[in-house]
């Protein structure tokens, strides 16, 4: 769990990642975590240490399944991923906001952005660990949590499709103005991550830039157990 993260991050095609985000609102980061790291993170779910709260989705109408929010200090690998990925995504986030006519800009360092969240009363860490069993699913949603929202987030699949579970595809939808929603299934294997728009992204139309709202969820798990870690860069109220 203490292996450096610079190697898998440096190996990624960040020009391709940026292009994919601009074109479709999401990008695949293959092999971000090793199988050993995935299994170690998934194994944390069985205990309560290191978590601040547990949510049973069905009680709130979120779907079926459950998740736990990590407490501070975050697991080392989650904290390092959050810190290392943020500055790579900041240029995209700032460019998107400028294109959409939004005044908000994000600082280069994640600690400075978290300080901004905390000054606004967003004090609770948002990275989370999700667990799904047979019949479980996650309704389409957005992870906003407060006034200060970083426009990109990450989901990392910790389980192996076809071995640990069946079904349970990661699903994204986008709602363009005056058009029906479009859905897309993201193909993930164990250790793969998807970075995607939290809320809105800019799209070039014939009359200029317009905003597209995106939501994400997980289709019904048909068999087995599926674990995912979510990395959200803003903290919550």
From TrEMBL:
This is 2OG-Fe(II) oxygenase. Keywords: Iron, Metal-binding, Oxidoreductase. Pfam families: Oxygenase-NA (PF09859). The keyword RNA-binding does not apply. The keyword Oxidoreductase applies. Residues 123-236 form the Fe2OG dioxygenase domain. Belongs to the iron/ascorbate-dependent oxidoreductase family.
């Amino acid at each position: 769990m203490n292996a450096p993260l610079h190697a898998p991050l440096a190996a990624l095609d960040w020009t391709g990642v940026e292009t994919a985000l601009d074109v479709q609102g999401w990008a695949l980061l293959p092999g971000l975590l090793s199988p050993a790291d995935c299994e170690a993170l998934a194994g944390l779910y069985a205990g309560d240490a290191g978590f601040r709260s547990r949510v049973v989705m069905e009680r709130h109408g979120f779907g079926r399944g459950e998740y736990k929010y990590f407490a501070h200090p975050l697991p080392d690998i989650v904290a390092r991923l959050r810190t290392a990925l943020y500055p790579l995504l900041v240029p995209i986030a700032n460019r998107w906001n400028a294109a959409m006519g939004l005044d908000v800009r994000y600082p280069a360092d994640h600690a400075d952005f978290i300080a901004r969240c905390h000054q606004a009363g967003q004090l609770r860490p948002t990275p989370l660990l999700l667990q799904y069993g047979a019949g479980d699913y996650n309704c389409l949603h957005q992870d906003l949590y407060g006034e200060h929202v970083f426009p990109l987030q990450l989901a990392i699949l910790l389980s192996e499709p076809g071995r640990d579970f069946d079904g349970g595809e990661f699903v994204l939808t986008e709602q363009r103005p005056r058009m029906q929603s479009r859905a897309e299934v993201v193909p993930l294997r164990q250790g793969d991550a998807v970075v995607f728009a939290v809320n809105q992204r800019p799209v070039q139309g014939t009359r200029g830039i317009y905003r597209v709202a995106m939501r994400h969820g997980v289709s019904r798990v048909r068999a087995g157990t599926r674990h995912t870690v979510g990395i959200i860069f803003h903290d919550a109220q």
